[in-house]
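ARCHIVE CARD
Drawer: 12
Card no.: 0347
Subject: one protein chain, sequence and derived structure
Cross-reference: see card 0346
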Amino acid sequence: MTDRALCVVRAGALTTVQDLGRPGHAHLGVPRSGALDRPAATLVNRLVGNAPEAAVLETTLNGCAVRPRSTVTVAVGGAPCRVTVDGRPVAWGAPVRMRAGAVLDVGAAVRGVRSYVAVSGGIAVEPVLGSRSTDLLSGLGPPPLTDGAVLPLGPPTPLHARVDVAPQPAPPAELVLRVTPGPRDDWFTPEAVRVLTSRTYRVSPASNRIGLRTDGPALERALTRELPSEGVVLGAVQVPPDGRPVVFLADHPTTGGYPVIAVVRTADLPAAAQAVPGTPVRFVAVRRR
């Protein structure tokens, strides 16, 4: 039994292993997956001395608790939350040295949705198609964490970033998503296209890693015939029969049969990962590059 491991004391509502994902396999029907808030994941890795692509833990809403079998450096970022080691408060957004057997407790998100936990050496579960990410849609990668699970860690890193704290963007009070119209905006009425970029939507509680669902005005279609399934990309704004836009996130399907009215700029998607249900959403049209 190796001492380079992390024992799960409390798995939380949904905690998964995530890295930068497995892009390039859409032709096989495999989503890219990976951390929804990529800047937060890469920052906590940097704080503990890991490479940006090292695997971290992504928590959802109520955090998790883990116990290392050896001395490690950890950092928690993403959604702000209370962080303790053996019940004593420690810094959020900064590297923290932990002894073997101590319990790191990542509390419920105070703002935002997803917190990220990096451990020196990275989570070293077996990679699948070049990634250690959990994919909730296809089932690839390790399953979501359960109480009592043991996660192997990679070799310890000699140094971590010499900083006390690193600035991180606050979760959005309003989610502004820049969109490029198309490829199927002509399947909607001109009024529907205007409504998408002029009215305010809200994040639906039904949102998940596959897609950010919205509540708001329904978008009316000009063409009602069935659309043959076609490829869809990260950030695609698909409109199902109820007319409410869905923004595809990291675990999105690689094909879809509902029309895509627009595509969100990739740079705006990390904020979508931290938008709590009820957050106002505005779609802002931008020109094609």
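Annotation on reverse: The mean pLDDT is 94. The helical segments are 38-48, 190-196, 269-273.
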